[in-house]
Design goal:
This protein is mainly α. The protein contains 3 helices and 2 strands; from the N terminus they run ααββα.
Length: 101
C-alpha cells in the first residue's frame, strides 16, 4: 500500500540525499530555497485548481493523509522533484566543466 510514497522514497528522496551530499559545495542555498518555494507555490495552486475543476482526483484509500484537498505525497513531490532536477543539473554541469580542455 502507499505505492506513491514508496516510489517517491526510492526514486526521488534517496537520490536527492545522495546528490545533495555530492553537490554540497556548489549549491547556493538561498537561491535554492527561493526557487523551491516559488515552484512549490505554483505547483500547489496548479494542483488545487485541477482538482477543483475535476480534471483529476485522488483515491482516499491510497493516500497517507490529506491537507487542503491534496495528498501529503503531492506536497513531497512538489518539493523533491524540482530539487532532484536542480541537483542533476548541478552534477552534470560540474562533470561537463571538468571534461572541458
Amino acid at each position: 500500500m502507499y505505492l506513491y510514497l514508496q516510489l517517491l522514497c526510492i526514486f526521488v528522496i534517496i537520490p536527492n540525499i545522495v546528490l545533495l551530499y555530492l553537490n554540497r559545495k556548489h549549491i547556493h542555498w538561498k537561491s535554492l530555497g527561493v526557487a523551491l518555494l516559488l515552484l512549490f507555490f505554483i505547483a500547489v495552486v496548479w494542483d488545487q485548481l485541477s482538482v477543483h475543476l475535476g480534471l483529476w482526483v485522488f483515491s482516499q484509500e491510497e493516500m497517507v493523509g490529506n491537507l487542503f484537498g491534496l495528498p501529503f505525497e503531492e506536497y513531497i513531490f512538489f518539493l523533491f522533484v524540482p530539487l532532484l532536477c536542480i541537483n542533476i543539473y548541478l552534477l552534470v554541469d560540474r562533470i561537463l566543466l571538468k571534461s572541458k580542455p
